[in-house]
Design a protein that fits this description.
- By secondary structure, this protein is an alpha/beta fold.
- The protein is 45% helix and 12% strand.
- Strands 5-6-4-7-8 form a five-stranded parallel sheet, sandwiched between helices. Strands 1-2-3 form a three-stranded antiparallel sheet. A two-stranded antiparallel sheet has the order 9-10.
- A hairpin with a 5-residue loop joins strand 1 and strand 2.
- The chain is globular.
- The structure holds adenosine-3'-5'-diphosphate.
- The site of adenosine-3'-5'-diphosphate (A3P) has 21 residues, from helix 3, helix 8 and helix 15.
């Protein structure tokens, strides 16, 4: 007889429960996947169910990131770019974007994660019914992506964003501590956080393996995997929006260019503007691992904040690992 979704889910849940685990950053068990990455139970199970169930279409676009690497930002940019015909961004910077979906829905509602929103214990959405182009996201490393996403036939596109290791660490540390404090726990000291980070015991980490997995996939097939860096997006967001639009097959026309469409998207998705959206101020997003207030995704949004928190020794320790791991990957460092 046919295996039901619930049976499949429980089978993977049993499998993950018996994997080795450690205490992670956020007061939850971190399981170690057989491909070497770490994660909470429910999203790891979700990633396995997604692998078994998801059927990719050539028009699908998958956002892939480590947490705290600019996921919210790239989701907003991709959504605004892909849907610009039905939902044009306001072109005069002063106008309120009240009618834009990004005002009322978090980027995490508009582009959902496979592993903790779509393939949950009580799967709610039938993805086959969604119109093209479907936009999804994941934090799962390249090696553990759903097989139909990785396949080249029919295949789909992947947009990866990577962020400086030290800034990703500091962002994750602040984020995790918000939840620890809410749970009545002491915030995790930075020393212990750096130790876990260097040992690869972070969500979907080791950091370096995650970045390298997508980097190699990008080098092997740049038409399939787009690779952005958070820092370069900060320096020149407009160029990145143009590259994103071309990559997903929707390049800006000269009319759109002349009408200021690119800058309007950049402005709509900017940290300042996104922080003031209705969805950010009062909204929440539900994940299998818990409910997160949308404002938690907006802290400072700058490059180099690590310098305010890491000692020179910590900096050197992390930089040395990065240098060794990324050696020979010109373009990555
Ligand atoms: P900081 O904690 O360093 O401020 P993610 O979306 O992957 O969870 O990443 C969150 C990080 O991206 C946070 O970094 C957050 O402030 C920053 N961020 C969120 N929205 C942004 C935007 N529109 N532009 C730039 N950075 C943004």
């Amino acid at each position: 007889s046919e295996t039901t979704y619930a049976e499949l889910y429980e089978r993977f849940a049993d499998q993950v429960s018996s994997l080795p685990s450690t205490e992670g950053l956020a007061n939850t068990k971190l399981y170690r996947h057989e491909h070497g990455w770490h994660c909470k139970l429910a999203p790891m199970v979700g990633s396995m169910v997604a692998d078994a169930c998801f059927a990719a279409r050539p028009s699908d676009v998958i956002v892939a990131t480590l947490p705290k690497s600019g996921t919210t930002w790239i989701k907003a940019l991709l959504y605004a770019t892909t849907h610009r015909r039905e939902h044009p961004p306001p072109v005069d910077g002063a106008a309120a974007a009240a009618d834009h979906p990004l005002n009322t829905s978090s980027p995490h509602e508009l582009i959902k994660f496979f592993e903790n929103q779509l393939y949950t214990r009580e799967k709610v959405l039938n993805l086959d019914e969604l119109p093209d182009p479907r936009l999804f996201s994941t934090h799962v490393p390249f090696v553990s992506l759903p097989r139909s996403v990785v396949a080249t036939e029919p295949g789909c596109k992947i947009v990866y964003v990577c962020r400086d290791a030290k800034d990703q660490l500091i962002s994750g540390w602040n984020f995790a501590n918000k939840f620890r404090v809410k749970d009545g726990l002491e915030p995790l000291p930075i020393e212990a956080t750096v130790e876990l980070f260097c040992n690869g015991q972070t969500f979907y980490g080791p950091y370096w393996d995650h970045v390298l997995g997508y980097w190699h996939a990008h080098v092997a097939n740049p038409q399939k995997v787009l690779f952005f860096k958070y820092e370069e997006m900060q320096t020149d967001p407009a160029t990145h929006v143009r590259r994103l639009a071309e990559f997903v097959g929707l390049p800006f026309s000269s009319e759109e260019e002349d009408g200021g469409m690119v800058d309007a998207i950049v402005e709509l998705c900017s940290f300042g503007r996104m922080s003031r959206m209705v969805a950010t101020k009062g909204g929440h997003t539900e994940f299998s691992s818990g409910v997160v207030p949308n404002k938690a995704y907006f802290r400072r949004g700058v490059v180099g904040d690590w310098a305010n928190h890491l000692s020179p020794e910590m900096q050197q320790r992390i930089d040395a690992i990065t240098e060794a791991k990324f050696k020979g990957c010109g373009g990555l460092t």
